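[09:14] KT: can someone run the structure on this one? pasting the chain below
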Amino acid sequence: MSALHYEVHGPSDAAATVLLSSGLGGSAGFWQPQLGALTAAGYRVIAYDQRGTGRSPAALPEAYAIADMARDVIEILDATNTARCHFAGHALGGLVGLQLALDAPSRIASLALVNAWSKPNPHSARCFDARLALLGACGPRAYVEAQPIFLYPAAWAAENAQRVADEVDHAFAHFPGESNMRARIAALRAFDIDARLADIVAPALIAAARDDTLVPWTCSQRLADGLRDVTLDFMPHGGHAHSVTEADAFNRSLLDFLSRVSAPAVPA
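[09:31] RB: done, structure tokens below
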């Protein structure tokens, strides 16, 4: 039994399981636009709240790192009797998947990496510096009010103003605390497995939006250049959270990838 909060959706006798890992927010709810498509396609789906966020325990270990987050996923896989999964991760969640693919390759059937990266970059560092300065100077409300600027294209945010406002209110009501947020950002900023990409054997879908204002799409290109078995899905727009803003297109790409990597091998 895992102490972390997790949800299992879809048929219990499914041939394959997809585990969904969110970005910095850490909430299982980020993947709501994907749940229906995945379960309708016959997948068993696990979503979870990362440690220190949502309904999972708030306390984080000292020197919290992406490797700690990867061990949490193994705990969930064990608790759900999941020997192997297709892992889909957004941003920070993608880093967790990359770490898992290095630390426990037998547990990962494939990776879907959404606006993720293999090493730090100066633009994202500047964005996180600004967000942390806002958090320190103005507090959690200002921090979460700024969050949609980094997640969504301006036109989409304007057209979905009430939805964005509701998300901001929810994020503020469930804010994990300044110390946890700083620890999580420090963990993702320290992540660097760039020199080890060729050691990852799992097939990977690399999904990115070229208008992502937080993580340059070139970080996804670097992943594609370094990994062994890659399928590319670069969208012209959609922002950092294009799995939300362009959910139908993203879901089609994800399901197509999963169907190909889940298909039994054809005998020679």
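[09:33] KT: thanks! The mean pLDDT is 96.
[09:34] RB: yep, looked fine to me
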